[in-house]
Design brief:
The complex is a heterodimer of chains A (about 325) and B (about 290).
Chain A: H1 2-24, H2 28-53, H3 61-77, H4 83-105, H5 110-130, H6 132-135, E1 141-142, H7 158-180, H8 183-193, H9 195-200, H10 205-231, E2 233-234, H11 241-254, H12 261-275, H13 284-297, H14 301-334
Antiparallel strand pairs in A: 1-2
Chain B: H1 2-32, H2 39-56, H3 61-84, H4 92-114, E1 128-131, E2 134-137, H5 138-160, H6 162-172, H7 174-179, H8 184-206, H9 216-231, H10 236-256, H11 262-276
Antiparallel strand pairs in B: 1-2
The chains are: A mainly alpha (about 325), B mainly alpha (about 290).
Chain lengths: ~325, ~290
């Protein structure tokens, strides 16, 4: 009970801190950084659903991110649609693309799935890079509008964009929380632990995997669309396989298959890279070995390891309490 | 018609390079049972070491290649002993992620050591010869011949020597190999050494007709994945067949369809194959 309460308190403190942050600490640089962290986290949450909970390493994630980003960029600049309609359409398009890829990709297993999705990612990259007349090729897409007005609310300041990203991130986390703590989440985990066993107890593997894959694409698309309207410029580089690897790293550092993992990992890795500016180009000299060490010694990442530690402590407490109880009973019986 | 023959020749050249890379990858797959994403980084390091030996130390092309093969083979052994050995029995996802970590590190290392510039590698075989009416550079001819020699050497090593047979046995049936007393650790590091050496040789041979840069391995490794899926994971004849098939398709496709989209061909081919047959072509039984 205490644990549950303290978890609630912790979440509330973090939420209040995130909301009050721009008022207390109006530093433009930090706000910009945090907004980016929030946007990337949304994509990493999507990654976590398919790779963390269902256990399928999807290497097309940057491709879906780019479909969302280019969807929004093209619909607003070339399609002339309003921002919010474009955002909605971009997310829908990415989800449909995810579902279509998923139907075929999910017929393959483990490493075939990883390679298949990697190839899908490369095809997306090559299409964006080569389809000059539509995407602008290597020159990229410029002049993407910032989020449009929503009634009396405008999004022309950095602070308002911070709140917008925070809103979508909270929405994402809430949705993930509900999924993980529902029958659906348990189903995903059951599939990850053993497909055969899950099948035996009557779980439709394909249906659930497809749902997870589509959801992961949806969040990637949302994140990409928000990214496009925040940075206002996108190039084919955002769909490169290295971006997928980067997201994988955020997830791994934070803790794969945990609820807090994506935001914790993204926050830590992006702020570390930013504070080690001189390393910008060579950051992988440090993070590459970090990824390997994590896989070797802490496969559950920061959040997973902390959870494991707390669990162990709790078990110890219960054990001690039980022993004390037994002892008292013995003493009582003897007396 | 001459254009077609020219393209077939070019296809054989590229195919030779793909095949050498895919052979290493398919051998390592037999040991790890997951694709080694870091293999492309081995390829890149191999090219840089040859270049460094030639430019920095003034070695002859062949000596530089030998040095490069030795260094990358050692690199393969080190990654196997330090990382993959410790992950034995872990699930596939962890191995794949570890391989990605190695790839990220080596790529950054290449950038850190040698910068992001594109380098040209000089070859003593730059002259043009006339072959059955085709004008070809000697280097391209050399690539084809060297690849065939390496493949034959590998074939004889795997079929005629005890240790080679042990590698094949491990790939075919792990438990069975343990039962007959095969030293798993020795087989594993040796396989990584061979795979690394092949990658370095392929890169050193291909560099004079391409360029040397930090991300040069990316596209090659992804195509090697396509090849081993086409040819069946772990299958050596499959990797050779797939490598030449892809080289020819690309080279002819670039001429007759579109040179802009020639890189897409490989990946579309794979998507089509896996769509029709999710376990890959030539796969026996259930994966």
């Amino acid at each position: 009970m205490l644990n549950f309460l303290s978890k609630r308190v912790l979440i509330s403190i973090v939420a209040v801190a995130a909301v009050l942050f721009p008022l207390v600490f109006p530093n433009m640089y930090v706000l910009q950084l945090l907004t980016l962290v929030f946007i990337w986290s949304i994509a990493v949450y999507g990654f976590n659903i398919i790779s963390g909970y269902v256990g399928y390493l999807s290497l097309a994630h940057a491709g879906f991110f780019a479909i969302g980003a280019y969807g929004l960029g093209l619909l607003t600049t070339k399609g002339g649609l309003s921002y919010w309609l474009s955002l909605l359409l971009a997310v829908i398009i990415t989800s449909i693309a995810g579902a279509l890829v998923g139907v075929i990709a999910l017929r393959t297993k483990s490493h075939f799935f990883a390679i298949y999705t990697m190839c899908v990612g490369v095809i997306v990259y090559l299409l964006i890079d080569k389809w000059d007349s539509l995407t602008g090729g290597v020159r990229g897409l410029i002049g993407i509008p910032a989020p449009g007005n929503l009634g009396p609310i405008t999004f022309d300041t950095l602070t308002s964009q911070y709140y917008l990203a925070l809103f979508f991130l909270s929405f994402t986390i809430f949705l993930c929380y509900r999924i993980v703590h529902s029958l659906l989440g348990r189903t995903f985990i059951a599939i990850r632990n053993s497909e055969e066993l899950a099948k035996t107890i009557g779980i439709s593997i394909m249906k659930n995997q497809l749902l997870a894959f589509t959801l992961s694409a949806l969040f990637a698309g949302l994140s990409g669309a928000l990214y496009a309207s925040f940075i206002r410029f996108i190039g084919p580089q955002i769909s490169a396989i290295t971006v997928t690897f980067e997201m994988l790293m955020y997830l791994l550092v934070g803790g794969i298959g945990t609820l807090a993992g994506p935001i914790v990992g993204t926050l830590i890795v992006i702020s570390l890279t930013q504070s080690l500016q001189f390393l910008e180009e060579y950051r992988m000299l440090i993070f590459g070995p970090v990824v390997v060490l994590l896989v070797l010694y802490y496969p559950r990442g920061i959040t997973g390891s902390i959870n494991g530690y707390l669990q162990k402590k709790k078990q110890q407490r219960v054990k001690v309490a039980n022993e004390e109880h037994d002892e008292k009973r013995k003493v009582g019986e003897a007396g | 018609m001459e254009l077609l023959f020219q393209q077939i020749f070019n296809g054989l050249t590229i195919g030779s390079v793909y095949t050498l890379v895919a052979l290493g990858l398919t051998l390592v797959f037999g040991i790890l049972h997951v694709p080694n994403f870091a293999h492309g980084a081995f390829y890149m390091v191999g090219a840089y070491i040859t270049l460094m030996m030639m430019v920095g130390f003034g070695f002859h092309y062949w000596i530089a290649i030998l040095a490069s093969v030795a260094v990358v083979a050692l690199l393969g052994v080190v990654t196997q002993q330090l990382i993959f050995k410790k992950l034995e029995g872990a699930d596939g996802m962890r191995m794949m992620v570890a391989a990605i970590g190695i790839l990220l590190f080596l790529e950054a290392f290449g950038q850190f050591m040698w910068g992001t510039e594109y380098y040209r590698m000089d070859t003593p075989y730059g002259s043009v010869v006339n072959l059955f009416g085709l004008t070809v550079t000697l280097q391209r001819l050399l690539i084809i011949v060297a690849a065939v020699i390496l493949m034959l050497a590998l074939h004889f090593f795997l079929t005629k020597t005890m240790i080679g047979a042990a590698i094949v046995a491990m790939a075919q049936n792990r438990e069975g190999a343990f039962l007959v007393g095969i030293n798993a650790n020795q087989v594993a590091w040796l396989t990584f050494a061979i795979a690394g050496g092949l990658a370095a040789a392929a890169a050193s041979l291909a560099s004079p007709i391409n360029l040397v840069f930090p991300t040069m391995g990316n596209l090659v490794i992804m195509k090697a994945f396509v090849i081993i899926i086409i040819g069946g994971m772990g299958s050596i004849p499959g990797a050779i067949l797939g490598g030449y098939l892809l080289g020819l398709t690309e080279s002819i496709g670039a001429t007759y369809i579109s040179s802009d989209y020639k890189d897409v061909i490989a990946f579309l081919l794979l998507v089509v194959i896996l769509t029709a047959k999710p376990t890959g072509l030539f796969t026996k039984g259930v994966q």
